[in-house]
Amino acid sequence: MAYGFSEYGGPETQQFFDVPVPSPGPGQLLVAVHAAGVNPADWKVRAGTRKDTVPVTLPAVLGREVAGVVADVGPRVTGFAVGDAVFGATATGFGGYTEYTLVNTAAAAHKPDTVSFADAATLPVAAGTAYDALTTLNLAPGSRLLVVGAGGGVGVAALQLAAARNVTVIGVASEGKREVVESLGATWVASGDGLAERVPGPVDAVFDLVGGTALAEAAQLVTDPAAIISVGDPLAARDLGGSGVERRRTSAVFAEVAALVADGTLDPRVAHRFPFAHAGDALATVESGHTSGKVVIEFGERVWLSPGPR
Questions:
Q1: Rounded to the nearest 5°, which phi and psi values hold at 134?
Q2: Per-residue confidence at 274, pLDDT binned at 50, 70, 90?
Q3: Residues 6 or more apart whose Cβ sits within 8 Å of residue 113
Q4: Is the bond preceding 59 in cis, omega lying within 30 degrees of 0?
Q5: What is the pLDDT of residues 106-158, one digit of tens each?
Q6: CA 19 to CA 309: how far, in whole Å?
Q7: What average pLDDT does the structure give for the chain?
Q8: Contact 266, 161 (CB under 8 A)
Q9: Inter-residue contact 100 to 33 (CB < 8 Å)
Q10: Phi/psi at 131 (5° precision)
């Protein structure tokens, strides 16, 4: 069983449908999914705004990140075995809102025992994006970082990871997310027009998750345009002298991020958990744009019995 969409469009195109359990190919893991992360990119793929970068075959299963237990391994797999608890990004053509999915070993990592399946399922996309952005910026302790869109999953991870590097963080978010931003040690600045006038002083770098006018105003504050990184509008960031985020969806990076969760440096802040039967509600929560923290779909623990349709 899987949850996805039958055609490009709005939530009305979403539905449950039966899918066969896939067979892992060379270098792949069949994962019995215990939890799947829910991200804004999921509904954007459904809406058709990512056609150029995320081609799909309809009906398509939603989601790109999961955590679960290895149910089967493909040829030439090393370092993973049936029964291992893992997390990672789903293989091309496979989604996360489903009971069983495929993950390439190159984009999978072992889940630490002290990290829950729900927390692990949120790491490949949001936390991984923040980790890669901060690695690229490589800010020195004491530097000032402006995070535009600080209240969402990527922003919340960025605030924590930057603080761990002793970077001073200013987080731009709505009034409703002020408490979250300040609880993570950042200086809160209200989102909206006139952003540049509200930010106290120049900054050494900008990590933008919004794009548009907010990015343009934030760019006025940075001392070096090359230190502008945007997820919200990478093309605009390049025009301003910056760049998008160069993602490294690798086992090594995922393991490093999971280790930060295990040692308490990073809290994924899972705010909403939905059972698989309410996958549509989970995506609607993210699509509303008003939630802070991460949203996860949970499947419960299951035992792999034998190949065949489920």
A1: -70, -30
A2: very high
A3: 85
A4: yes
A5: 999 999 999 999 999 999 999 999 999 999 999 999 999 999 999 888 999 99
A6: 7
A7: 92
A8: yes
A9: yes
A10: -60, -45
> CA–CA separation, 3 vs 152, rounded Å?
24
User: Residue 148 and residue 282: Cα distance in Å, rounded?
Assistant: 24
pLDDT tens string 167-222: 999 999 999 899 999 999 999 999 999 998 999 889 999 999 999 999 999 999 99
Q: How confident is the model at residue 91 (pLDDT cuts 50, 70, 90)?
A: very high
